[in-house]
């Protein structure tokens, strides 16, 4: 719920660049002689380019249409030009850069070159499958040590989902008792901010892979069209700066957490909260904040003057309310708890920023 990039940079501002370099090198491993391995992204692009130039491709994939084949060829050549400069932008580019690249790509190919919309569902074309399976193979990356190592390095070992702040994400150590090998297992989803069925070329783009919970990714977001113009990419923007939770008027009147509302503070055209059904999900779990609201009403007299420290001590027994917003991603429900306390503490005596 706060910008992941800011959070990571607050710990170590060189880490993201280092991770991006290891990621690029991990996807493009070289032999001792300095040649790229056959399973490197660069070699895979070269291989697909050769395939596209064959008569068989023209017949089987491009429906005997030279223009179609030329668009496919144009895309791979775009990745490879100037010493694969655009391939590197595609993998390492930040969310703004990905938005620029998307427009550049859609000048070379048409959206229906990679997918078609049939009865409200996107299906990949043959060319879409070639991109997502023969080049940008997400499945093999997701099951790789490279993926787990990056998640651990970036601190996703124990955090809450950056989209919803409702569910926990973790990377755990598994010790295999039959051997001495130790492996990590990532108990989280990697959401493709730009869905891979519509944008298969972003299947491995670092800033398109959002560590998130299963509810947000697989049950709710699925293949909804997201973009940074209309949605929050957690590496780009902070939900905390764009939305705030508030108790409903009835709740305030009854001094009880009965219902919350979600108010947009900025970015008026944002659809993230609606598309992720956040308000319904929070109201369905309202009991998580009942104790905090109840505590506030019963103890607010202690918040005055010299009893403030005492109030904060008591508060820490009922809830891990985080005074530093950079800690919001640590625990589930921390965003809503901070917002509700700020609403109740009308003179901001708790100094929640
Ligand atoms: Zn989530």
Describe the structure.
With 353 residues, the protein is of the alpha+beta class. It has 2 domains: 4-221, no CATH class; 239-344, no CATH class. 49% of the residues lie in helices and 12% in strands. It has helices spanning 4-11, 15-27, 41-52, 55-60, 66-92, 95-108, 111-114, 126-135, 138-142, 145-153, 214-221, 239-242, 249-254, 272-275, 278-284, 287-299, 308-318, 334-344; strands spanning 115-118, 121-124, 158-160, 168-175, 182-187, 189-192, 209-212, 243-247, 260-264. The strands form 4 sheets. It has a 3-stranded antiparallel sheet with strand order 3-4-5, covered by helices on one side. Strand 4 and strand 5 (182-187) form a beta hairpin. The model has no long low-confidence stretch (mean pLDDT 93). The structure holds zinc ion (ZN). Residues 161, 163-164, 166-167, 212-213, 215-216 line the site of zinc ion.
List the helices and strands and how they pair.
Blueprint: H1 4-11, H2 15-27, H3 41-52, H4 55-60, H5 66-92, H6 95-108, H7 111-114, E1 115-118, E2 121-124, H8 126-135, H9 138-142, H10 145-153, E3 158-160, E4 168-175, E5 182-187, E6 189-192, E7 209-212, H11 214-221, H12 239-242, E8 243-247, H13 249-254, E9 260-264, H14 272-275, H15 278-284, H16 287-299, H17 308-318, H18 334-344
Antiparallel strand pairs: 1-2, 3-4, 4-5, 6-7, 8-9
Bound molecules: zinc ion.
Zinc ion is lined by residues 161, 163-164, 166-167, 212-213, 215-216.
């Amino acid at each position: 719920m706060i910008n992941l990039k800011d959070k990571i940079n607050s710990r170590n501002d060189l880490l993201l660049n280092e991770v991006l370099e290891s990621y690029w090198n991990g996807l493009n491993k070289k032999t001792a002689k300095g040649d790229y391995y056959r399973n490197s992204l660069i070699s895979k692009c070269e291989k697909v380019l050769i395939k596209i130039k064959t008569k068989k491709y023209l017949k089987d994939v491009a429906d005997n249409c030279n223009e179609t084949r030329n668009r496919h060829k144009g895309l791979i050549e775009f990745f490879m030009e100037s010493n694969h400069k655009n391939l590197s932008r595609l993998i390492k580019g930040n969310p703004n850069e990905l938005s620029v690249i998307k427009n550049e790509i859609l000048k070379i190919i048409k959206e229906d070159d990679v997918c078609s919309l049939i009865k409200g569902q996107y299906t990949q074309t043959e060319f879409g499958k070639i991109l997502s399976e023969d080049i940008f193979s997400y499945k093999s990356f997701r099951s790789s040590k490279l993926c787990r190592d990056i998640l651990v390095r970036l601190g996703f070992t124990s955090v809450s989902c950056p989209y919803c702040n409702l569910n926990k994400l973790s990377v755990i150590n598994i010790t295999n008792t039959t051997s001495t090998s130790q492996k990590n297992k990532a108990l989280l989803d990697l959401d493709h901010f730009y869905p891979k069925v519509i944008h298969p070329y972003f299947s491995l783009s670092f800033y398109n892979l959002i560590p998130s919970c299963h509810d947000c990714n697989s049950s709710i977001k699925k293949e909804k069209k997201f973009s940074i113009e209309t949605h929050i990419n957690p590496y780009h923007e902070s939900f905390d700066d764009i939305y705030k939770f508030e108790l409903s008027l009835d709740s305030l009147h009854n001094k009880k957490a009965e219902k919350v509302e979600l108010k947009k503070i900025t970015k008026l055209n944002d659809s993230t909260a609606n598309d992720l059904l956040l308000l319904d999900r929070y109201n369905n779990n309202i009991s998580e904040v009942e104790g905090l609201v109840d505590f506030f009403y019963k103890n607010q007299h202690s918040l005055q003057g010299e009893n403030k420290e005492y109030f904060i001590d008591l508060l820490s027994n009922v809830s891990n309310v985080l005074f530093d917003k950079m800690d919001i991603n640590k625990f589930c429900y921390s965003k809503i708890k901070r917002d509700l306390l700020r609403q109740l503490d009308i003179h901001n005596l708790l100094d929640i920023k």
